[in-house]
Amino acid sequence: MTTTTFTDFSTVIDSAWLNDVDAIVYDIFAAATTKAAARVSLFPTPTDGNILVGDGTDWVNESGATARTSLGLGAGDSPQFQTIELGHATDTTVTRASAGDMAIEGNTIYRAGGTDVPITDGGTGASTKGAAQTALGIIPDDGAWAGYTPTISSGTGTITTASGTGRWLKQGKIVHFSVILTITTNGTGATSITFTLPQAGPVTNEYAFAGQEIATSGVGLTVKFRGGDSTTVVSVYKYDSTYPATNGSILIVSGSYEVA
Fold first, then answer.
1. Labelling 207: which of 32, 59, 99, 133 has CA 20 to 30 A away?
2. 102 DSSP β-pair partners
3. Overall pTM surpassing 0.85 (yes/no)
4. Are strands 152-156 and 84-85 parallel, antiparallel or unpaired?
5. Tell me, what's the pLDDT at 98?
């Protein structure tokens, strides 16, 4: 085997190729270990905690913030990851649920200004104070009435288009309510108009409320709430127990009842 001592690495490699592979390995390592400058350039001191990175000219040792920056993980960088595993390879996976939202194991992390938190997840399922109070079935702490949206239907047939708004206030076990029911297109609705109350009453409830149609006929209304039939649904009739609405009718109903 032929060996030669060189100070220039390009000379080492060029010469080594003229000999054999063993000579290449020997000469490179001989030069690196016998020349201080070469040792610093090619093989920096392997200090504990450092990493070897290129600085554009030489291989250099880096650690701490300098090393993190070189790897694109510095304080001023914005690294992007598909997922992040916290403390375990699979059971605490952090992912991107949607724009601005994170999830852990597929469960969205709720945040200020984000999605309403369902009651089943410890929230109220609502975006406003009144709606939250309604969802939780509590008395408004400021004495104000809370809003709710009654579900409108008919005793028989089908109402084509209807809408309603409601207000309610709970005091102890008594609920006071007031609703406005608009029957835009009656369709085949017949027998009675029905709507839901803000809270259920006991099965033993038997109540009669008052109301009036204010847009088409102006007739008085008879309103029945029987817990034995339903603990949440009220039936509205005209004063003579006939169907109370037609296209464009607006019914107003108010009353008070005991809750379960």
1. 133
2. 96
3. no
4. unpaired
5. 80
